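Try this one yourself first.
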């Protein structure tokens, strides 16, 4: 991987959704924690947004903004008289190296006309040297140019296409078991890139045979440990050519132990989707509450699974969680945990190791769950029992 971007090492935000200001370093494994409605999903969405701007098929600034309801929907309510939304991302070749690239994008809303998103600033730095600065002379002659970023334009991003390719490769999957089992029950157009797994089975079927079988065999070995009596996992197609997953369970009756995905538990489907995503590529992977539907004993092993993927593929993971079981792993460092704290002036984001009390607790062997989770409990939560 030498010479190539492998991680986002730093992010700065201004007026992005819940956040007036964010300025934090990111580790190769990032765990985002905070109370409900503090902005965990919105923090992950900044990386999905920049992916949507940069992606080669069906991307671009205007579409990424419209999919989120317009500039007014993503601009922080606490922004007051500061109109611009700013995203600054540093990209590095390793966790210990200086940033190779810096990409800065500022967005405002047009003051009249179609009220579309407008590029207020777009800058790119390579090894500290600025190679793009917008608005430029051509932008000033034709203001319509500022409705697009150079990031999304193949004829304009040649000098920094490595950034565009990296952002385009970012992946996200939050598999919804009901959607996978019964896609026909959810009419309407599919969401681009299928983030919730409606077409997950078709995605598996489209994968080349050797790769598909290798991945399913690895997933099967994990399921044999995590799912009682499961012996085998394969893919198949019915008479109409519709793809399915099929599991064989040990059973006293011959041939009675076969099940397809419509009979799998939510947890089994979630685990299959999670493991497939981990095996799928080397790109940045965004995971939202991966513990959902999973037994606590399985969740407690997820940090070790993530760590093995990280060490083998050098892959960056950014995930959000509420799980005590996941955060009970003492191998999680304070520099890997981002603590979100909401207030009337917007949510702050703090690297947990920078909080002295948390740092001392972790250094003395206290688990991240015990050191941090008390800080994200809502005030007077005990009063909820009075409902």
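Now uncover the answer:
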């Amino acid at each position: 991987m030498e010479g190539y971007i492998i991680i986002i090492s730093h992010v700065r935000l201004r007026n992005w959704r819940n956040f007036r200001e964010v300025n934090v370093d990111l580790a190769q494994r990032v765990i985002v924690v905070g109370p409900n409605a503090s902005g965990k999903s919105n923090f992950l969405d900044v990386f999905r947004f920049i992916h949507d701007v940069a992606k080669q098929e069906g991307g671009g600034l205007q579409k990424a903004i419209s999919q989120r309801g317009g500039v007014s929907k993503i601009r922080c309510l606490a922004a007051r008289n500061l109109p611009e939304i700013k995203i600054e991302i540093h990209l590095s070749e390793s966790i210990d190296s200086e940033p190779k690239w810096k990409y800065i994008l500022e967005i405002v809303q047009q003051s009249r006309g179609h009220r579309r998103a407008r590029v207020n600033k777009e800058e790119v730095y390579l090894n500290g040297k600025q190679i793009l600065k917008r608005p430029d002379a051509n932008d000033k002659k034709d203001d319509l140019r500022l409705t697009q970023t150079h990031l999304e334009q193949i004829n304009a991003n040649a000098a920094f296409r490595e950034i565009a390719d990296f952002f385009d490769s970012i992946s996200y999957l939050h598999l919804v078991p009901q959607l996978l089992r019964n896609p026909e029950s959810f009419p309407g157009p599919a969401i681009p890139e299928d983030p919730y797994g409606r077409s997950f089975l078709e995605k598996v079927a489209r994968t080349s045979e050797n790769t598909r079988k290798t991945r399913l065999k690895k997933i099967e070995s994990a399921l044999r440990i995590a799912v009682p009596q499961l012996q085998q996992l394969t893919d198949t197609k019915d008479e109409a050519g519709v793809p399915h997953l099929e599991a064989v369970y040990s059973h006293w009756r011959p041939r009675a132990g076969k099940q397809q995905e419509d009979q799998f538990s939510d947890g089994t489907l979630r685990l299959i989707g999670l493991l497939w995503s981990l095996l799928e590529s080397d790109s940045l992977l965004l995971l939202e509450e991966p513990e959902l539907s999973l037994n606590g004993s399985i969740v407690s092993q997820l940090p070790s699974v993530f760590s093995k993927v990280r060490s083998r593929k050098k892959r960056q993971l950014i995930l959000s969680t509420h799980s005590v079981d996941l955060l009970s792993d003492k191998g999680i460092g304070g520099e890997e945990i981002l603590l979100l704290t909401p207030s009337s002036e917007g949510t702050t984001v703090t690297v947990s190791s920078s909080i002295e009390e948390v740092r001392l607790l972790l250094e003395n062997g206290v688990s991240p769950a015990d050191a941090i989770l008390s800080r994200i409990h809502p005030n007077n939560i005990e009063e909820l029992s009075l409902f």
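Discussion: The chain has a mean pLDDT of 91. Residues 37 and 342 are 8 Å apart (CA to CA).
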